[in-house]
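Teaching assistant here, posting this on the class forum so everyone can see the example we discussed in section. The complex has two components, and the goal was to see what a joint structure prediction looks like when all of them are supplied at once.
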Amino acid sequence: MTELGQNLIDALALGSLYALIAVGIALVYTVMGMMNFAHGEFITLSAYALYVLAGLPFAVAVAFALLAGSAIALVTERVAFRPLRNADISTQLVTSLAVATILQNVVVVAVDGRAQSVQAPASISESTSLGGIAVPNLEFLTLGLTVTVLAGLGWLLYRTRTGLAMRAAAENFEMARLLGVQADRVIAIAFAISGALAAAVAVLIVMQTGQVSPTMGLTPVLVGFVAVVIGGFGRIFGAVIGGLLLGALSSLLGAYLPDGLVPFRDAIVFTFPVLILIFRPRGLLGGATGEARV
Amino acid sequence: MSGARFRTRSSFGASLLVPLALIAITVLAGVNGTPSFQGTVTLTLCNLIIVLGLQVFIGNSGVYSFGQLGFATLGAYVAALLTLPAAFVVLQTPSLPDFIAEAQLGPLPSTLIAAAISGLVAIVVGLPLMRTSTLAIPISTFAFLIVVYNVVANWDRVTGGSGGLVTIPTTTSVATAGLWAGAAVVLALAFKWSPSGYRLQATREDEVAARSIGISVTKERLIAFGISGILCGVGGALMAHQSGVLNPATFYFGATVTTVTMLVVGGARGVLGAVVGALAISVVNELLRGLEDGADLFGAISIGEAPGLAAIGLGAILLATMVAMPNGLSGGREAGELSWVRRLSPMRPPSLPKSDGAAAGRPPTGRVSEGGLDAAGISLAFSGLRVLEGVDLALAPGEALGLIGPNGAGKTTLVNVLSGFQKPDSGVVTLDGVDVTGRSPSRLAHAGLGRTFQAALPFPDLTALESVAVGAMGMGVGTRRAVRAAAEVLGRLDLLEQAELPAGSLPPGGQRLLGIARALAIQPRYLLLDEPAAGLNEGESEELVAILRNVLADFGCGILLIEHDMGTVMDLCPRIQVLDDGATLRIGTPEEIQADPAVVESYLGSSFLTVADA
């Protein structure tokens, strides 16, 4: 019973983390129609900001990491993605792959190719007992952060003028533009938020693993991509569901797979979306797929 | 036959000879070099084969896959395990089944088996993945790459785990790699110029239009995915036998970025681009690595081990290409299509005859049939908004029926329902007595239904001749016959002079006609024309009417003509159906329609009055 409860909370926490990653990717996709490979490097660079600022008080370092995430996202948007705003989805995808490669290796050149360790504050590494279940404080932080972020995003999208503009841009970018939505501003805001989300994810991952490495963004970005595919392109809350499903699956497989199969957990997790796509080629919520309409 | 004098771009020998010559030069440069230089050249050629594998799928479909290196991994491991001496196998991979462990094949059979297995797995993996969308394919193939990596890295007792395999016989020489690369060029070009290759390119150029001429997007993508898997498997197998060592990271994320960069920088749409890109990026890579630390590491393309500078350089080159030169160094052309090569070539394109198509006698179309295209009680609503409400329509074989109505009456939606692009909420569509409600556009095309769209939807990068021929190829006709049929149709539509121009370069009127020619090439029994004159100027419009009259007389198919210009409809169609607000308002002769007060009222303020005056 306790074990089940423990596993369920672990599953929810990992699902929340994946949902945060997926939302950051889905947000940019909704306003710009681009699947951003470089989101993984937004995570990596923010994590390195945390590593570099390790001497500062933790809260200050985290604040800087969030700022760094937003700043990197804004700069890449301005330099690399803006010229290709009207290019087709494949061109944008490959461009973001190029940006990801560059950013990743900037870290290799500037710091090192090997992983570096980062110390998490004691308060985060400890656990709190909850009805006989020892829940790591980090999981509370993850859950709390996810709920806060989703609520904030919901408020932004549905209660503010900026959110209205973003949703309009998501529906029909050209029309929104004609009606006076400032494309540059909407896209910049989406990237800034996406970068901050990536930084939040980076903080959680670094606290979990205690280290940073140049390739640490690869698995998260793929998880986020797959979550968006499962949820259905262009559906922000589809991405949340996709992330929760993937994270829960991964966590529960880790707990219940027979020992011999545990190393193959990732293989099973990444095969799972294929099963979904067999039955629902357009994802769970069946969003727009970039396919031309007649 | 006029068609015999035309050719598709597939007939330009230079397209085959130039890439082969580039490979030959590479082989000659490498064959007498130092052992380390020979290794570099061999690895370049292996990479080239993998890049050609990417080209077959990515270049022709326009859809990116980041999973093809998974097939290279598969090919490499299969070939390695089949050739490792049994004594070494037992040490490295104790759980391998005996018959594989004891197998000690030569390089050729092991490579062929590796290729076959990679191709088979590609088909199995592609079956579900190719059904998804242009954007889901890159992501799910990337997931496949991770799955392969994860399995290979952890299945220690079969694959040697993350340590990999060593002591693999090193049998791949510069010459072997060169021969395989040459074969890969031939295969990639043969595919590109096969009916299947043309059909796939059509889906890249315009997916909707491709479906309307009977092309199954999923099927064509799957075929190319399988062939791509074979080539990647060969590349992987050869590479394993070059370096003698193999680990899961050999063909992982870094190698994926490198090979995709090679393809994109060279120009993904062409085989020439794949060859040029692979060679050019290999040289650049080598120089960058030289800059990095002077070490001769080329070919060990795993990003985990590569220091950052070379990778930054590659990323910057890829980024610059996407921004400034999205079609790559070759512009996506084959060698035979480059103007300077064509000037040098003794095989000039033939001088084109003035259109003599009309003299060719009865067209191949006009299969006389009983029945007709019938719709009964078609209703459809978009999120609660009624668009069609119980509409009936009957188009007899060989008949010309006009469909008119004010904007928003539901004309195009009805055509979409008839042609399978839109499922009705209720109602039945029958084609010559067979219920075809809800069938896919491509199946309906095979059943004899052609259509055009309000936009011309050209295949910009195919020539006019190819654009039309691919319609016949969509019906399963071979290249030669398809080209003949296309020339025939182009002649009838007065487009012969533009036959060898890219479709995207034709003027709007020409593109519109080409859309009609493309639909006619599938030899439809029923043809739905959705506002063929939309967006044309007056002169072009008049020309189009004259040609439509010919089509009606010559091709013998039943035609449903949607047209805003009342004069045109009344001129061409002896029977007219008026749609208003999603329901049929009136069916009758032009005179009856003109005299009907309800029709006049629905058109009040629109072009109808002016036509009535005229």
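For the discussion questions: Residues 294-298, 301-305, 345-369, 607-614 of chain B have pLDDT under 50 and may be disordered. Residues 35-61 of chain B form the longest helix (27 residues). Think about how each of these relates to the inputs above.
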